[in-house]
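Q: Structure tokens for this one, please.
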Amino acid sequence: MAHYFARSLFVLAALSLSGCAAFSPDSGMTAVSDLTGQAINKDVAFVRTAEGAGGVDARVRQLLSRTLNADAAVQIALLNNKGLQAAYNELALAETDLVEQSLPPNPVFSMSRISGNGASEIERQVVGDILALATLPFRSDIARERFRQAQLRAALATLRVAADVRRVYVRAVAGNEMVALLTDAKSTAESTAQLAVKLGETGAVNKLDQAREQVFYAETTADLATARQAATSAREKLARLMGLWDAGLDFRLPNALPALPRRPQALPSIEADAVAHRLDLQIARLELTALAKSLNLTEATRFVTLLDLAGISRRTQDPEGAPFRERGFDVQFQIPIFDGGEVRVRQAAETYSLAFNRLTERAVNVRSEARDAYRVYRSTYDIASHYQREILPLRKIITEEMQLRFSSMQVDIFALLTEARQRLASLRGAIDAKQNFFLAQSELQTAINGGGAPADRGDTSITIATAAPADGGH
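A: Here is the predicted structure, written as tokens:
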């Protein structure tokens, strides 16, 4: 009996091994690359060897050799950001969990020897967890769902880094543009302030007008210092996101944001696109699927949570007689007298309901976020376009006309300076409007594909530890 049981146990384990998961060559990165490639059309790399690190360094140096645009900055970050590499390490760890959960439990072998008064007894046992073997296909299936979730989380982390880089890039370049504008404005304000002082010494300008020019110069100086600080901070944050240090910190950025597109995107099906493509929704759906399977497993093992079968072989040596052998088996299982599994089933059911409600809430929020992101995108485009088509051309006409009138002595110097201050305000407003548009454009892609800041509850994963018996029911 024991020999037959041991052989049967090994045969069952061998059959279970035939369906086991194995480590993939890339730790699941192919799926991550496919998902991110569809969304942002950029390369990703999981650096695990010296050759891979060398290839990444060469690619980064090549991209840094010229003035960075937004796409190049994103590509550098996806290759060189160490936090993103850590997210890929977590994916590799998730694959180890998948392989571990797909392996059958190891049988336990025990041997004891008892002797006394010339007699001895040797007992051998092979113990197998039958419940763990029986539930192995279900637990392995759940583990595959969890690994798929890990792949989606790695892709989501990739999109989040890309979105962060685009936002910071826009702020850094807009900061450069603002610094250049205020540098020129400060130079002009300094000249007019000095002129006002000289005219005041001759009595041609009163103290009020002198103070106005001097305070404009002082305010412009303060604004320039603030703009420089903001641009420097944005540049440093961009360097952190791109994983640069030492020699890589001297990268070049444009002095101004690119021109607005000729027309805004028309996205009539943006809500449906967001619901279909958002990775956080896909993660929540997989979570719900895994919980449903775990609930079924919990219900199936409600009454039996422990089932061990042991094959026993015993050899007894008596000094007064011939040695003899005994064979048999031992079965251990719990008797559900006090705990009939109701607690575990209730926990699994409530955990499933919790995940369902969170998925529904997230779907509602995703549709709303997509609508709002598109409205902001369109409104910021209209505002920035209004500055470019209406306000700045009119300001240019006003400046030209004021200069003509000043040349013909129809207006004095202070009227011309007042108009210059108003034109500066319009130029600053145009830079801010264009920055807001490109930020809204980035947020629009995030609303469709995912990669924004985690929600307070919507992105919180739900553990299924309470919904499935650990280690086959122990």
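A few notes: Residues 455-474 have pLDDT under 50 and may be disordered. The chain has twelve helices and four strands.
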